[in-house]
Amino acid sequence: MKKIKFIASTLVAVMVAGFTSSCVKDLDVTPIDPNTVLPEDVLDSDEAFGQFLAKCYQGLCSSSSYGQDGSPDIDGVDGGYGQYFRAVVNMQEVTTDVMTCCWNDGTLFDLHNLCWNSSNEFVFSMYMRIYFQISQCNEFIRRSNATTISDYPHKEEYVSEARALRLLSYYHAIDMFGNVPFATEENSVGSQAPEQKKRADLFDWMVDECNDLLENGFLRGAGAAEYGRADKGLVMMILAKLYLNAEVWKGEAMYDKCAKVCEEIMPFYALHENYKDLFCADNHLCTSNSTFFGDEIMFVAPQDGNQLHSYGSTNFLVFASTWSVTGKPEKTMDVAQVGISSGWSGLSLTGTFTSKFEENDARAMFFKGGYKQYIDALRDADGASEGWKSMKFSNINHDGSAAQAQGFVDTDFPVFRFADVLLMYAECAARGAANASEGQKYFDEVRARAGLDHLALSLDNIIDERGRELYMEGFRRQDLIRFGLFTTDKYLWEFKGGAAEGKAVDSKFNLFSIPSADLNSNSNLEQNPGY
């Protein structure tokens, strides 16, 4: 069994720093959990602050401190599809060429069709999850800075971790929503609604915050934190992502800076030799602080089949990537192959995407069964869809043994991996901002791990390789936007824009809409253009 270092917090109250949605409440109101106590009554020791910090981590892993069916942290946000990294996958992967979900749930089809609006419940869930996390981190930092107790020896370290986790959520905010409401620990609880920060200004604040944490913070060194905890490696990765996307987010290319940060990251991590191990039930052995496998997975959102349950994260990726059709055994997947006893079905990969894989690519872990490769309908008469199913994530240990449970997976969600660092540097090199021979070497290293030969370094090859290496990990939409392929007619896939053969869509869909619920409750906010 993996050893999860953080525990579910007893401080389950939604301690929010004045964000404005009707579903996120500040400390002046009754907490969502009626059994919880007020923080001022219990924040009296290092251990108590550690429990509060644990809640900041737990919010990335599950939707509630009371298990998968417990009262969700955010009133009005589904505990299943509203889980943080399931929402990330919906926003970053289901909207792209990678996959679609054939469930007839609300406005789910609008994600893959690229036709959502400001009332889309899946977009709303992502937005609220981001700001729930930011708000908790803000309140933790504020409470820590204000406390006068002497029994708090880990104060500087814990505050630095909360700042790093806040950066992670602002990273998703700047990417998905652009100009967003902004608050830090300086905003008092219950004060006026937060102002909206321009995307370019948020970019500058995030770069400064990253650099301050790296130079003056109290984070452990890259790869040196306890399992599942934030360290300098997480912050360096966020900084590299900022520079990688600076041309979109800031309006100024900074690929040279991205390459430099990648070079600074490289001494602390390494590729693991077996790609499949990174997505199995004991993939915690591939984290940077493991003494067993090595150093590829830089930061994770843990899952545990016995201790930490969620209907999102990797539980979603394993269970929903199955399928069975009554009376059609050729279309029924043996779910034991991915370590579960029964599946949810729903997710299908698109033929446009799966056709990018060479036959001997170790990353092409697909269940083909009786399905056609290309999707003719998002939902067919059987309640299924065509398209191959992914077996990338599984609930089976690296040695083939069974995980500790089948009802919920043990597989951690890999938030950042070292292979991405190598591909980022290679992209910077292909754009003329880094050493070309080094970029080619790193590019070939990633391919060699997949069992593939040398391929010339070019932007076309880079975007395809990033897709093959990182699919279902929450980067595809971001990458397609950076390459100018997401909304344009330069690249089409099944049902892009709602057309079976795909079509271009309005460029407004390069950003998600600010939910109407927050616009209505905060007069400081303006909707993203076009919505």
A few lines on this structure:
The chain is mainly alpha-helical. The chain has helices spanning 39-42, 46-61, 84-92, 109-113, 121-146, 155-176, 199-216, 232-244, 246-249, 255-265, 313-319, 351-354, 418-430, 436-449, 459-470, 476-482, 516-521; strands at 99-101, 180-181, 196-197, 297-301, 347-349, 366-367, 389-390, 413-417.
Q: What does it look like?
A:
With 531 residues, this protein is mainly alpha-helical. Helix content is 36%, strand content 5%. The protein has helices spanning 39-42, 46-61, 84-92, 109-113, 121-146, 155-176, 199-216, 232-244, 246-249, 255-265, 313-319, 351-354, 418-430, 436-449, 459-470, 476-482, 516-521, and strands at residues 99-101, 180-181, 196-197, 297-301, 347-349, 366-367, 389-390, 413-417. The strands form four sheets. The chain has a two-stranded antiparallel ribbon. A two-stranded antiparallel ribbon has the order 2-3. A two-stranded antiparallel ribbon has the order 4-8.
